[in-house]
């Protein structure tokens, strides 16, 4: 070890440089001279956090316990990792084997780039034993791989492949890892049978009565048959026993089954297997006829077909297992850190599969790190969330509130805002790590689940990995930083500044009306206080188009407040202390609560009528069209317009320009342009561009020019009472027939669910709902 004295926080601290055991073994003399057997203590220095982790593992092995990686902490300035905790494996209570042990070390990154141990707890609350064999850092010998018998790829965007080889038993450790691997592919029973694989590729056809030892074996067989015949396979529906909820049958379908994707054409080919009392599986139903051209034996040029790692029933399933006997070159992928506890995967995967039996449109996807044979990130969205995205997916908040504190699971949500300006769920995820690759996979999966329609704008953390992934997956979207994160960074970086500067800083940000004004006031402020060399102020100014209101007003954000904190969709239902056993229940409770609030607003908008406050025809027009919440916002703008004066400053042909200022306030003024030919108008406040509602300044000009009814272009359908049907109507031209059919299915299903909900509340309402549907059926020419 190397030791040196450094001065920190006003006193001298002895800093010792530590090396992992394998390094010390090569430096025996130095190790002996400095007491290499010494225990960890405050001041111990490491080159990297990984080096500290290895050191603690060695210490743990020698002492008689196991170590694992605990919390990490990030800098509020640039989001980089500033400190890490390594804890006893029995820390916490999430598993039966844990005892809440408090033993740990914490290392903190210094300005020099070194990591120094600054906190330590050596006492354990459990017995210590000899566990060195289990935690040794000595690498195990790896035997040379035998010829590949089965290979799968799991993500076309990353080089991730896994070889399952019968001779590689030691590297796989046990069939348990294989079971987990195939469960994440939504089959989840049994292990790969290489013997049956050789049978499958022989080209034998399936038939009723064909038996298999496991569901995976059946899946591989059907995949091999599909490759010979010339089509791809997806996992279809599964059916469960009403007695013990175990899986009783499965369907494997042609990838072109259904109409929920442009590539789908309603193909009816499938194979269904049924579980027997003996534990085996038998083909009990089969359809070999396809309604599209087949491509026998077609393979990709790289020797492996690319498959996705979606796992979904009904609507979007996964093209699962690709067989290839000629693959000799396996790309190696580096194992990544995973912040999701292993106990979360069986819980969530079981929940996803049970949801598939209830909801045809339920979608989920699993990211796999095949190098380590483990699951990474998970994404899911039910049919209601997917349909909501077709209506309100133009402005999306990617909420990663878990990054604020020590959450037990990195739970993230995609949130939109509906026609009542309420948050609406567009998808959920648990994020394994915070790398760019992880977020790229997540955003691409979300986009695929939402029929490939990117949002117009996205609000997300300013973390570089998130922002880079957003720009890659949604290159045309306007990106805005999370308000809470900006406030945090301002509190941290502006703390030493005088209150006068903070006041002028706030005024510059929130009172500048144009980008020219903002830039001018900002530069004057920086010069006034001599802050040209302030690194943080310089950095945020360079990225001002992502956070400054003057730069954001020209982009549509559906009224998401620029300077307000965003409340997490699930609120207090899911927080940092939510235990594993309560997660699903609280998740569903919070989701149902939000959707019940939406149903109440739907009911109120159709059945309640707000009072008019003016005699303007435009007020009556908007009361008839807008939801209650949106109408009240419009009504306020209309009433406020009476407090403004309007002066024409320019006119040429059909074009006019007006100066609109508030009575008694000369500083509050805006410029409005108006075209008499097509009634186009725009205001310097850009409220319509940002929120989709006309501002008081334009309404004042309309009143002056006696425009009695708002042009339809200024009433966005997303804000109206019947917005739920708007997307299908607006997109009837410009989308494929399959995609349009999927949207119509979602829309009709949503409408039908409301008939069921209200029609079952009483016998009288049931009779009314039934009569309405029966009369509608006659118009649709239903055949009884």
Automatic annotation (TrEMBL):
Name the family: Belongs to the FHY3/FAR1 family.
Q: What is this protein called?
A: Protein FAR1-RELATED SEQUENCE
The places in or outside the cell where this protein is found are: Nucleus
Key word Iron present in the record?
A: no
Task: Output the InterPro entries linked to this UniProt entry.
Answer: FAR1_DNA_bnd_dom (IPR004330), FHY3/FAR1 (IPR031052), MULE_transposase_dom (IPR018289), Znf_PMZ (IPR006564), Znf_SWIM (IPR007527)
Q: Do you know which Pfam families this protein is assigned to? A: FAR1, MULE, SWIM
Q: What is its main location?
A: nucleus
Compositionally biased intervals (Basic and acidic residues): 162-173
Q: Where is the SWIM-type domain?
A: 670-706
**Keyword Metal-binding attributed:** yes
Region of interest (Disordered), ranges: 154-201
Q: Which organism is it from?
A: Brassica cretica (Mustard)
């Amino acid at each position: 070890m190397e030791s040196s004295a450094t001065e920190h926080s006003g006193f001298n601290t002895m800093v010792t440089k530590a090396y992992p055991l394998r390094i010390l073994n090569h430096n025996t003399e130095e190790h002996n001279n400095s007491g290499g057997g010494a225990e960890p203590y405050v001041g111990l220095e490491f080159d990297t956090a990984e080096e500290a982790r290895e050191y603690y593992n060695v210490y743990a092995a020698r002492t008689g316990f196991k170590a694992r990686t605990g919390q990490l902490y990030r800098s509020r300035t640039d989001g980089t990792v500033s400190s890490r905790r390594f804890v006893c494996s029995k820390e916490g209570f999430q598993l039966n084997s844990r005892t809440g042990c408090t033993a740990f070390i914490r290392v903190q990154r210094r300005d020099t780039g070194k990591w120094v141990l600054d906190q330590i707890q050596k006492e354990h609350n459990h017995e210590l034993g000899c566990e060195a064999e289990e935690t040794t850092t000595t690498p195990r010998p790896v035997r040379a791989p035998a010829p590949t018998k089965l290979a799968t790829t799991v993500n076309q965007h990353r080089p991730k492949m896994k070889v399952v080889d019968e001779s590689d038993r030691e590297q796989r450790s046990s069939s348990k890892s294989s079971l987990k691997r195939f469960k994440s592919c939504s089959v989840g029973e049994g292990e790969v049978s290489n013997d049956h694989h050789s049978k499958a590729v022989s080209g034998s056809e399936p038939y009723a009565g064909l038996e298999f030892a496991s569901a995976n074996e059946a899946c591989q067989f059907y995949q091999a048959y599909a490759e010979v015949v010339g089509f791809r396979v997806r996992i279809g529906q599964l059916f469960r026993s009403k007695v013990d909820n175990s899986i009783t049958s499965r369907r494997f379908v042609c990838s072109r089954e259904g109409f929920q994707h442009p590539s789908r054409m309603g193909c009816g080919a499938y194979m269904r297997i049924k579980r027997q009392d003996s534990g085996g599986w038998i083909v009990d139903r089969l359809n070999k006829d396809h309604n599209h051209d087949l491509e026998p034996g077609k393979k990709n040029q790289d020797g492996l077909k690319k498959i996705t790692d979606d796992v979904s029933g009904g609507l979007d399933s996964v093209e699962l297992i690709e067989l290839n006997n000629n693959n000799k070159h396996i790309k190696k992928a580096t194992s990544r850190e995973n912040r999701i506890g292993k106990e979360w995967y069986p819980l969530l995967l079981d929940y996803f599969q049970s949801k598939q039996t209830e909801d045809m449109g339920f979608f989920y996807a699993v990211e796999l790190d095949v190098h380590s044979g483990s699951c990474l990130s998970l994404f899911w969205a039910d049919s209601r969330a997917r349909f909501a995205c077709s209506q309100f997916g133009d402005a999306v908040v990617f909420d990663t509130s878990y990054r604020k504190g020590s959450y037990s699971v990195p739970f993230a949500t995609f949130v939109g805002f509906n026609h009542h300006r309420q948050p609406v769920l567009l998808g959920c995820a648990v994020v394994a790590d915070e790398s760019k690759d992880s977020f790229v996979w997540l955003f691409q999966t979300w986009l695929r689940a939402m029929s490939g329609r990117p949002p117009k704008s996205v609000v997300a953390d300013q973390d570089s990995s998130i922002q880079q992934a957003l720009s890659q997956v949604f290159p045309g979207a306007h990106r805005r930083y999370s308000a809470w994160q900006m406030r945090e960074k301002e509190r941290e970086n502006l703390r030493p500044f005088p209150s006068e500067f903070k006041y002028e800083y706030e005024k510059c940000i929130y009172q500048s009306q144009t980008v020219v004004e903002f830039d001018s006031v900002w530069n004057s402020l920086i010069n006034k206080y001599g802050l040209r060399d302030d690194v943080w102020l310089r950095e945020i100014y360079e990225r001002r188009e992502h956070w400054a209101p003057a730069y954001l007003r020209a982009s549509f954000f559906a009224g998401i407040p620029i300077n307000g904190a965003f409340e997490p969709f699930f609120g207090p239902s899911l927080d940092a202390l939510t235990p594993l056993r309560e997660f699903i229940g609280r998740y569903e409770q919070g989701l149902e609560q939000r959707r019940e609030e939406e149903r109440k607003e739907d009911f109120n908008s159709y059945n309640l009528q707000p009072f008019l406050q003016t005699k303007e025809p435009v007020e009556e027009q908007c009361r008839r069209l807008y939801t209650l919440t949106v109408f009240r916002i419009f009504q306020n703008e209309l009433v406020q317009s009476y407090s403004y004066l309007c002066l024409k400053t320019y006119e040429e042909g059909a074009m006019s320009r007006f100066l609109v200022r508030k009575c008694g306030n000369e500083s509050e003024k805006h410029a409005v342009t108006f075209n008499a030919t097509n009634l186009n108008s725009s205001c310097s406040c850009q409220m319509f561009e940002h929120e989709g509602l006309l501002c008081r300044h334009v309404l004042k000009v309309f009143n002056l020019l006696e425009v009695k009814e708002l042009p339809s272009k200024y009433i966005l359908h997303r804000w109206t009472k019947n917005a739920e049907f708007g997307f299908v109507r607006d997109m009837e031209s410009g989308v494929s027939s399959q995609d349009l059919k999927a949207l119509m299915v979602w829309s009709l299903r949503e409408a039908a669910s409301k008939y069921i909900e209200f029609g079952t509340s009483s016998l009288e309402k049931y009779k009314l709902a039934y009569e309405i549907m029966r009369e509608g059926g006659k118009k649709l020419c239903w055949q009884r």
